[in-house]
Structures are given as C-alpha cells and as structure tokens.
Design a protein that fits this description.
- 14% of the residues lie in helices and 51% in strands.
- The chain has helices spanning 2-36, 181-190; strands at 41-51, 58-68, 73-83, 86-97, 112-116, 122-127, 133-146, 150-161, 164-178, 217-224, 229-234, 242-247, 250-255, 260-261, 272-277, 282-295, 306-317, 320-332.
- The longest helix is centred in the N-terminal third of the chain and has 35 residues, at 2-36.
C-alpha cells in the first residue's frame, strides 16, 4: 500500500512540474527570440595606454569590437605594443557567440583573459601567451559621456610586460550605435571564417566586409604632458566633434572642433596635425613619430583601414606651452 501511495505521489509531482518546465523552456525560447529581434548594433571598446615622456613613449592599444547581427554576435579582440622601430602584434582573434543581453561587455577568449571585480569593473586585461601581457587599469579619475552611445574615461594604469611594470595612463573609449538591418546581415555573411588567425603583418585574416554606408574616416587623439594635462580630440560618430581638456581638477568640453591635418613632411611619418580652440584658449601642434601601425584588412566586425600614430608636439593652454606626447588613431566608425 505504501509503495502504491508513493507511486501516486511521484506521478502527481511530475505532472505538476511539467507545466513549470514547459513554461521555463518557453520563457527561454522567448528570451532568445527577443534578443534576436533587437536592432543590429556595433559596439567598440579600446584602451590606449601611454607612459613617458621618453623619446619614444611606451604605448599599447587594446582594441575590442562586437557586431550584433540579430541571430548572434561576432566579436573581435586584438592588441599591439609599440616598439622603437614599429609595432608588435600581441594577439588577434575573431569568433562567433550566442546573443546575450549585454553584448557590449568584454568576454574572455582562448589566451585572452579578464579579471573583473565585484562591481563589474575590469581589474585586468591579460594575454597568457609568450610573452605575457597584462594591462591593469585603476578606477577612472575623469569621465565624459553622451547618452548610452559614448563614454570616455581616463584611468591610471600599469602595463606589465615580461614581469616589468610600467605606470601610465589609459584612455578608455566605449562607443555603440545601431546599424541598418540589411547592412549588418551582409557584413556578417562577408566576414568569413572566425578562426582568429593573424596574417603575416598582424592584420586579421577574414576578407574585408561591405562598408558601412554611414561610416566616415575620423581622427581620435589623446595626448598628455605626463603630469596633469590630458587632451582628447575625437570626431567619432557617437561623440560628434569634441575637444575634452583635463588640467588637474579643471575639465572643459568644446564641441564642434576637429583636428586640422597639416602638410606631411617626409612621407606618412612626417604627418602633422593642429589643434585650434580659441574659445578654450588652447592651441597645439602634433607630429607623427616613427612608423604608424596600419591595419589594411577588415575582420567583418571593425571597419578598416586603421592607422595608429605615436605623436609628439606641444599644447598651449591659456598662454602656457607644454610638450606633449600621445597616440592618434585614424579610422572609421
């Protein structure tokens, strides 16, 4: 009799649990459908590290991009470190993943790892390769944002290479924007296999994707005097033309300002740029130093070509001229 009662109870529990399981499965399927129904979007995050001032500053770029195409995500991650006569490609990878609710967050992949704090802030970007490379950003000491589509952060940071730690500053750029549906689908389809294999020159292997009809080439520059002056100029679509000045406790934003490209002297490495912001009592001149990093091939996620220059020069703020150094990125967005 006891066995019969136990069997009846088990059948009843299973019958009651079945709708819950079915509802859970339906809810999960609906969640996936809702993620796929989101409009296509592109997300970028890059950390530009600077330390110096030496004749050739210590520089590095960690560059990440995510393309949300509806059915899934295509991600790209890459990093370069500047050396005296050029650039070293540290890692380059592209891969596909399932759609998630927060596609703009960075995720680990193979030898690339993340250390994330309880508050969700990145505590370290780590490449566990040979040689190992680690970027350790601190909480930001200055920030600017425009809605949910653009955020610029300045952070103190440590770059660790071969056990040697170099203190410096990071410009943390986070951008996002919606894309036309037809274009996003074509871009994912044209991006080719996502094996993350670098080519001989460090560019990504997949073929170039169709160009974004709304993309345009723009300059993004970050320079500093190595002490308290930080100047950012960008014309990224998500930010608009923008000058951001951080001078100790003072911050200033000037909109509608672009870098003025000067005449190149001695080829690409002799390129010059001018900053002129009379309303902010600021002007300056920058010149390219050494060979730029040039990425000619697309990866189906980030537009190409991209060029990254180490720059040196001067900035004059309210009549006080200071030598500066930094990085200038010329690309599309």
């Amino acid at each position: 009799m006891r066995r019969l009662l136990l069997l009846i109870l088990l059948i009843a529990v299973h019958a009651c649990d079945r709708p819950a399981r079915d509802a859970g499965a339906a809810s999960a399927a609906a969640g996936v459908d809702s993620l796929a129904a989101r409009p296509p979007a592109a997300y970028e995050r890059r950390m530009l590290f600077l330390a110096g001032p030496e004749t050739r500053p210590v520089v590095a770029l960690f560059d990440f991009a995510t393309l949300h195409g509806g059915a899934g995500l295509r991600r790209a991650a890459r990093a370069w470190v500047g050396r005296r006569d050029g650039w070293d490609s540290i890692f380059v990878a592209t891969w596909d993943s399932e759609p998630v609710r927060v596609p703009w967050l960075l995720v680990p992949h193979r030898a690339f790892r993340l250390l994330v704090g309880d508050d969700g802030e990145i505590e370290a970007l780590v490449y566990r390769g040979d040689p190992e490379l680690r970027l350790v950003p601190a909480p930001h000491f200055a920030s600017w944002s425009r809605g949910r589509g653009a955020q610029l952060l300045l952070r103190s940071a440590q770059l660790v290479q071969n056990g040697t730690s170099t203190p410096g500053v990071v410009l943390d750029v986070q951008l996002g924007r919606e894309l036309p549906r037809a274009w996003a689908a074509d871009r994912v389809a044209a991006s080719g296999p996502a094996d993350g294999t670098p080519s001989a020159d460090g560019a990504l292997a997949p073929p170039t994707a169709p160009p974004d009809p709304d993309s345009a080439t723009y300059d993004e520059v970050y320079v500093t005097d190595g002490e308290e002056l930080h100047v950012v100029v960008t014309s990224a679509p998500a930010t608009g033309d923008l000058l951001w000045i951080v001078a100790g406790p003072e911050e200033r934003i000037v909109e509608g300002l672009r870098l003025e490209a000067g005449a190149a002297r001695g080829g690409r490495t002799g390129a010059t740029w001018r900053i002129a912001a009379p309303d902010a009592a600021l002007q300056g001149e920058l010149r390219a130093v050494g060979s730029p990093l040039e990425v000619a091939a697309g990866d189906g996620v980030t537009p190409a070509p991209i060029a990254l220059f180490v720059v040196r020069g001067w900035v004059e703020l309210r009549g006080v001229r200071r030598p500066v150094y930094g990085l200038l990125r010329r690309g599309q967005g």
